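Structure tokens please, single chain.
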Amino acid sequence: MILKIIKWSSLSILALTLLMVTYYFYLYFSFDTKNLPENHGKVHTQLYLGEGDNQPLIVGIGGSEGGNAWTSDHWKSQRDRFIAQGYAFLALGYFGMEGLPKKLDRISLESVHQAISDASKNAKINGHCIALIGGSKGAELSLSLASIYPDIKAVVGIVPGHAIFAGLTDAMTTSSFTLNDKQLPFVPVPWSTTPSLIMGDLHGAWIEMLKNKEAVKRAAIKIENINGPLLFVSATKDEMWPSTAMSEEMINRLKKNKFPF
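Here you go.
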């Protein structure tokens, strides 16, 4: 009886695994990689202003949770602290809201930058002093923006990535970001990550991705081009991806390129 139970349990697990793999193959090969996502280039912003003039602008950019995270009650005390210190604060959402792309997939860098630029033209804001603060994929986005647009004068990257990775779709076959509607080079997700992904081990999957040194080199964010100081805040026990190792890689890149800030 026990042997029969073990046998049927093993067969059930095998059948379920095969079903999952088949479904993933379907998602992989059916995903539309040619046409840009619906609502591509749409961005949501909420501007918070203090009483004074000439306010430096801090832009808060969320991560893989989607929506406009910095507008939530969870971040209200931090927003209020920035305002009390004399900053203006722009909360920016770029996917996962009505009217925006559904997924973090091929997000338009120029559209995000345009939204920031538009906010900086407010009469109370000092448009020459713009800083970004982003967490996780939001840090990846913040660093990518600052490496391209020199009007961004500082970046705080919370548990950041050092390269551009695949978009957060079911297929994971497209870049997270585009520039002028062209996908930026990204680190692909190899088939060898499948066991980790099935087990929900995202950190293990990222370790596997980072073994592709050539892809990482091509997709590395050119942080040495950023026109101001950087702060990285990482987690040595990060369960999502190796943020400390990637932060250290960026620090080494800055030293190698004699980063002046």
